[in-house]
Amino acid sequence: MTSTGVRTAEHPESNGDCMTAVASLLVGAGFFSLWFWLLPGWLGFHVETTGAARWRWIAAVPSVLGFAVALRCVWDFGRTGHGTPAPIAPPKRLVVVGFYRYVRNPMYVGFLAGWTGLWVVFGRCNLAAIAVACLVVLGVHLFVLGYEEPTLRRMFAAEYEEYCRNVPRWLPRVRPWERARKNLDGMGV
Q1: What is the pLDDT of residues 151-166, one digit of tens each?
Q2: What is the pLDDT of residue 163?
Q3: Phi, psi of 95 (to 5 degrees)
């Protein structure tokens, strides 16, 4: 329990929860795969399938995986954090499970991989689009620094500070972070 009375959620997933998460990821991957076939026509995109352009479809793999990561993070916010990623209904517990054990912002990293993959698949790259994409990435970074992290520090105090010391903001760790067991005792986790 933190000094603000908010508990930190960190518990192993049971087999049933794991199967539910796998099912959610499969449904999400299927959903985004359908969009690779439907979205181009609806938006008027023509994807080249001849020559070197046909290899662009390989970018569908990191795109689907990136969006699946983002979907799993939304799942973790609800299941573990008892809230949403939206500031109007924030989590009641610090989410330190799943991909959050590797990187502090896996949802943003997943969306970046997803949208970059789509961009490669559709082959719509020009200087203006690159500039806008860079501005969006900068805006997200500033939002994380200026709003999200200070808010999480206020909500979760020492637990969030420990998390920040051990888990990087943008580039994932190789191994998942494991909180020392002695730190969990007395927190009701």
Answers
A1: 999 999 999 999 999 9
A2: 93
A3: -85, 110
H or E element, residue 95:
strand 94-95
**Tokens standing for 129?**
């689009």
Using alpha carbons, list the distances in angstroms from residue 42 to 9, 47, 111, 125, 160: 42, 12, 21, 19, 43
Asked whether the beta carbons of 95 and 148 are under 8 A apart, the reply is: no
Which residues share a beta bridge with 9?
95
Q: Which of 28-32, 79-83, 95-99 has the lowest mean pLDDT?
A: 28-32
Q: Which burial class, exposed, middle or buried, applies to 50 when counting CB atoms under 10 A from its CB (0-12, 13-18, 19+)?
A: exposed
CATH hierarchy code of domain 8-184: 1.20.120.1630
Bridge partners for 94 per DSSP = 8
Structure tokens at 109: 């990293």
What pLDDT shows up at residue 45?
A: 59
Domain boundaries, the chain: 8-184
pLDDT per position as a tens digit, 8-22: 444 444 555 565 555
The answer to whether the CB of 5 falls within 8 A of the CB of 156 is: no
Phi and psi (nearest 5°) for 9? -100, 120
Torsion (CA) 162, 164, 168, 174 in degrees, nearest 10: 20
Q: How crowded is the C-beta side of 41, counted as CA atoms within 13 Å?
A: 5
Tokens of 182: 């002695």
